[in-house]
Specification:
The protein is α+β, with helices and mostly antiparallel strands. It has ten helices and ten strands.
């Protein structure tokens, strides 16, 4: 049964989020951002078009294999050195450390990558700040729901993340999955109407709701497998998840970009766990 009210509610909520962003955040010179991108990556224009169209773009061989191997070793080292910072999700299979850039010069290279920052600002049109880089390892365990613990959006309207695979990722060990086009406002409203998805501000969806959506509308699941060093550029307002692992493990880095107005001192100090030095960097950078 189609729910026109659900569509209207969703559309209005996305508009509200866009209005708040326009009121609270600094616009960027998108032409300058695109020019910078073209200097930093040879296919910047194509990547921008792909994210704008489907919500996600894939760049192979962004980091070399030996650098990825060093990155995996760093994640294992930090897990042992800072056990109090490790968050355990998805039945304990998903081990996450936020702020790894503060304690690892190697992993800080991904955090500080200017191409990734410029890409996010060119896509969204407003200033972004890289709050923290997540270093994560997820292992195949019977109770795992995949990275992110199931289908969800990170936000309604616009959100940007860059994800780097540090290990080879196949269908067996948890590739990133994305419902292509679901980052678009009209699509979110339409899908809510025809599939009965929970209304905003809810951002998480039961598997049955996604199955119903896929049965009724022509959305493609984009499964992002790839070798170690594969980069994903993602508008995470679209519906996505890490596919549950059947075997092996997956190592990855993820940059969490926010608009500066979304970050206040309370958000930093109340964050469940951050690596030593990460909170101090954020507070200093944003003068909180």
């Amino acid at each position: 049964m189609v729910s026109i009210n659900s569509a209207i509610e969703t559309y209005r909520y996305w508009n509200l989020q866009a209005e708040v962003r326009a009121e609270q955040e600094r616009r960027v010179d998108t032409a300058a951002s695109r020019s910078k991108l073209e200097r930093l990556h040879p296919d910047a224009a194509g990547l921008l078009r792909e994210v704008q169209s489907t919500g996600v773009a894939v760049v192979e061989n962004y980091w070399p294999a030996d650098k990825c191997a060093a990155g995996r070793a760093e994640i294992d080292r930090l897990t042992e050195q800072y056990p109090q910072v490790v968050q355990h999700n998805s039945g304990g299979s998903d081990k996450r450390m936020f702020g790894v850039e503060a304690v690892s010069p190697l992993l800080a290279e991904f955090h500080d990558d200017p191409m990734l920052h410029a890409m996010g600002e060119a896509l969204g049109g407003y200033a972004l700040y890289n709050f923290a880089t997540l270093g994560a390892r997820i292992d195949a365990m019977p109770q795992n729901n995949g990275s992110g613990d199931g289908w969800h959006r990170d936000a309604h309207d616009f959100q940007f993340k860059s994800i780097l695979y540090l290990s080879d990722v196949s269908l067996e060990n948890g590739p990133f999955e994305y419902l292509a086009g679901s980052q678009k406002k009209w699509r979110a409203a339409f899908d809510s109407a025809v599939a009965g998805l929970p209304s905003p501000p809810n951002t998480r969806y039961e598997p049955a709701a996604i199955d119903a959506l896929m049965a009724r509308v022509p959305l493609k699941v984009q499964r992002c497998s790839g070798k170690a060093g594969t980069l994903l550029l993602v508008n995470t307002s679209g519906i996505h998840r890490g596919r549950p692992l059947k075997s092996g493990s997956r190592y990855a880095l993820t940059n969490y970009f926010y608009h500066p107005y979304q970050i206040d001192r309370a958000r930093v100090t109340n964050f469940p766990t951050l690596m030593p030095g990460a909170a101090e960097r954020i507070i200093t950078d944003l003068q909180l």
